[in-house]
Amino acid sequence: MARSTSADVARASGVSRTTVSYVLNGRADASISAATRERVHEAARRLGYAPSAAARSLRTGRSDLVLCVLPDWPIGPVVDALLEHLTEELADRGMALLVHHGRDRRPLAELWRAVDVRAVVGLAPFAAADEAAMRRAGIDVLTTAAGAEGGPGPTAGAQERTGRLQVRHLAAAGHRTVGYAATTDPRVSAFAEQRLAGARAACVDLGLPAPSVREVDLEAPAAAAAVRAWRAEDPPVTAVAAYNDDVALAVLAGARAEGLEVPGDVAVVGVDDVPAARLAAPPLTTVAQSVDAQVAHLVARLVAHLDGDGPDGPAPPELLEVVVRSST
User: Is pLDDT above 50 for 57?
Assistant: First the structure.
């Protein structure tokens, strides 16, 4: 079915297109009776008419769209929270969020030139040429130092602290031989390297042997093979720090497949505190990140930027907490 136009609304309500424009754009200074205004609004509702984004941009001189560019990361709870908060905040200001995922390999310029946007938010730095071109086109550009998998913050330093916290928690529980379950996902290799570096540094600080590192696919047989190999070492690994909760849940499955008790034979700690961590058997100990606080910080920066106050402000919070459950 063809999209309704302002001309359709004008015919249905028996007024001119100019009157329709004045009514639907809220022109209080126009001398239009309340009855006529109601007739135009009723016709627009009945026809399902909505002004186009392009028309609004031409009328107001600015777009009501904000483009959020997601890097090629796995979509996780941080991104979900970010998009939800950002969508709500922009909706309150009469604006809409358009999301572009980095898996689309087309040049970014093809997108922002095809879609009239007011601002572009990047969770990772843009190429210098792309950013300069957007600014020349009058588009507000906001980037955030990304650190958490799939979302903004914490910073790279907090990634290392995450690995340190995992090992310190395991050592405090009496473990001296630690394994590290690395991810096989190349998209998060930078984060993985930082977390592993933190785990290694904590072992040095505590006088422990370096962690025994094994990649763990998210499949029970592969995880079982990794657990079997850890237990065959001399001395055997008694605790595993995993890259994130998904990998940790795989390690739990591998331990069950090997007939091992958790935490009696091997303790396991993850990162992110995903909902499934609380439902695991046994419930998973994890390092939780301050997702809500980090997302609120990014949204506040964007709103300030759109208001012309500039993107600068206090650094985002980097709250990390070990949530202790039965797996350790």
Answer: no
